[in-house]
Amino acid sequence: MSGGWFETVAEAQRRAQRRLPRSVYGALLAGSERGLTYQDNLDAFAELGLAPHIADLSAERRLGTRVMGIDIDLPVIISPTGVQAVHPEGETAVARAAAARGTIMGLSSFASRPVEEVAAANAHTFYQTYWMGTRERMVKRLERARAAGAVGVIATVDWTFSNGRDWGSPWIPEKLTPRAALRFAPQALRRPQWLWDFVRSGGVPDLTTPNLATDGEEPPTFFGAYGEWMQTPPPTWEDIAWLRDQWDGPFLLKGISRLDDARRAVDAGVSAISVSNHGGNNIDGIPAAVRMLPAIADAVGDEVDVLLDGGVRRGGDVAKALALGAKAVLIGRASLWGLAANGQAGVENVLDILRAGLDSALYGLGHDAVAQLGRGDLWIPDGFTREFGSPHATRVDEADRVLAGIA
Ligand SMILES: Cc1cc2nc3c(=O)[nH]c(=O)nc-3n(C[C@H](O)[C@H](O)[C@H](O)COP(=O)(O)O)c2cc1C
């Protein structure tokens, strides 16, 4: 095996920590406040048991599936993550790895590499957008993504600008000015391999967001773009339906926790939803995504593809999420640890680990295809699930309006 190969995602994380400057590693770890949600995303998967058979097993297993009309070889999709300075090739390396393993690349609008380069590396690139800026600017960004070859959109609407972590937030400069470089130098010099990779590739990270520039303007800085986003009034459900109408193709709404929101998302015409708490980086105290998944999958799984993201580190986690009703999962940190540890090969390594673990789970559970996974494959502890809101929200609201004489 090559020296860069690693055995588990946990090892990729350890290598990422050893390789990255402290601030960059801290930005990847993220999480918010006490880290309750971050931790619950991991703990909840560990609470679920798998119930294997020992005979009449399938000699061959099919791990591919179809999500939002796209055939993928593995029910694991790259979740969009807006982080800078992880690796000189950044999201382009991730996109190549996802293409090599036959899956979809989610590209954050806060990513470090331009959508043109990323979509050229992966024919199944989805462009992620927040509700930020004017409608005109949002449309221009989507038009640019479409022209670049992106085939789908991920709209992420769960962010609440929460900040502060009990373990401290990393220092991230607005720009790598000489003064900032001087302050950053002690961290960077302790990570010579990371520094050398950037120097060899021709420069230092520029900390801009190329995918948020429109009309040929200079790419805004990360914090400049964050400012535009913070000043944008939050979207209504009509706004979300409007955004969906701007994209003729697959549209994933990411960040659903509640049954009523899942119902409204379906009514807004989305192709898929992701049950998600933003990987524990948002309001702290939201339960693990996998606890909220079963009720949401039961409520709307026949109408849209239900996905999940948050806490997936093993192939067994993928099997558990699918058994509880997800069509596929998205991975955030796992792909970032792989990228930091070993570039494109590291992300391929992570996808291979998840593939092998999912395949073993399917083998033991006696299935020959991922679609056969179901709740009978799991031991689910009492009180495991969390359910918020009513799946009939829209109709109840309408009834209320009729009763109130306003409809
Ligand atoms: C460092 C970091 C940056 C992220 N940036 C974005 C982003 O720009 N857009 C987005 O939709 N989600 C973003 N997310 C959330 C991920 O897409 C995903 O929901 C989350 O990472 C899933 O949890 P996991 O990391 O445990 O897999 C980010 C997550 C992390 C850890």
Structure description:
The chain is built from 15 helices and twelve strands. The longest helix is centred in the C-terminal third of the chain and has 33 residues. It starts with 8 loop residues before the first helix and ends with a helix. The mean pLDDT is 94. Bound molecules: flavin mononucleotide. The site of flavin mononucleotide has 26 residues, from helix 2 and helix 14. Flavin mononucleotide (FMN) binds next to helix 2 and helix 14.
Question: Helix-strand pattern, N to C?
Answer: HHHEEEEHEHEHEHHHHEHEHEHEHEH
Number of E strands? 12
Distance between the termini: 67 Å
Which molecules are bound in this entry?
flavin mononucleotide
Query: Count of helices?
Result: 15
Percentage of residues in DSSP E strands: 5-15%
Rounded to an integer in angstroms, the radius of gyration calculated over CA atoms is 21 Å
Structural class: alpha/beta
Main beta-sheet annotation = 8 strands, parallel
Helix content: 40-55%
Shape label: globular
| Model regions low in confidence, pLDDT < 50 over at least 5 residues | none
Overall pLDDT? 94
How are the strands of the largest sheet arranged? 4-11-10-9-8-7-6-5
